[in-house]
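Translate structure to sequence.
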C-alpha cells in the first residue's frame, strides 16, 4: 500500500485510461494519495504496445497538468521518433519536449505534434535551446525512462551534437 521507506513506487496505468480526463483524474488522485507515481508505457515488442501520439499526448497532459512526477518505460531507444525494426517508436527527446509543452498548458494536439516530429535537426535544436528553468521543470516531471539499450540513446545524442563522444 505504501512504498518502502525512501523508495519511489510507480503504478503503470493503461495510457488509454490516462487519456480519458475523468478516469485520469481519479487514477492519478489515487496514486498520489498512496504515495505512488505514474509509469507510462511507451513501447514494447509489438506495434500495439506503442501508444499513438494522441494517446501519449493526453497522458502527458494529465500527469503534467497535475504536476505529478512520472517515468516512461519501454520503447524509447532513440532520441527522435522513427520507424525501427518495423515499429513506430517514440523518441525520448520528443517525449521530453512534449512534457515541457504539457507543463506549459499546451493542448493535446500541440503535444501530439511534438511527439510526431521526425526532423532530428529540429528536435535537437529545440532541446538545445531549452532554458535552464524550463529544463529543470521538465526533468523534475519526467524523472527517467527505461530502454533495453544503453548504447543507442547515447549514440543518438552524440550524432545530434548534444553529447560529446564518450
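Result:
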Amino acid at each position: 500500500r505504501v512504498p518502502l521507506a525512501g523508495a519511489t513506487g510507480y503504478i503503470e496505468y493503461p495510457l488509454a485510461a490516462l487519456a480519458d480526463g475523468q478516469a485520469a483524474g481519479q487514477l492519478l488522485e489515487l496514486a498520489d494519495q498512496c504515495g505512488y507515481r505514474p509509469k507510462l508505457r511507451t513501447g514494447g515488442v509489438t506495434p500495439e504496445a506503442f501508444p499513438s501520439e494522441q494517446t501519449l499526448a493526453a497522458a502527458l497532459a494529465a500527469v503534467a497538468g497535475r504536476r505529478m512526477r512520472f517515468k516512461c518505460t519501454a520503447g524509447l531507444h532513440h532520441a527522435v521518433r522513427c520507424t525501427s525494426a518495423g515499429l513506430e517508436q517514440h523518441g525520448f527527446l520528443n517525449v521530453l519536449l512534449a512534457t515541457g509543452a504539457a507543463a506549459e498548458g499546451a493542448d493535446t494536439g500541440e503535444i501530439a505534434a511534438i511527439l510526431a516530429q521526425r526532423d532530428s535537426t529540429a528536435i535537437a535544436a529545440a532541446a538545445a535551446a531549452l532554458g535552464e528553468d524550463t529544463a529543470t521543470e521538465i526533468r523534475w516531471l519526467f524523472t527517467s525512462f527505461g530502454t533495453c539499450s544503453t548504447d543507442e540513446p547515447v549514440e543518438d545524442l552524440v550524432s545530434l551534437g548534444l553529447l560529446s563522444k564518450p
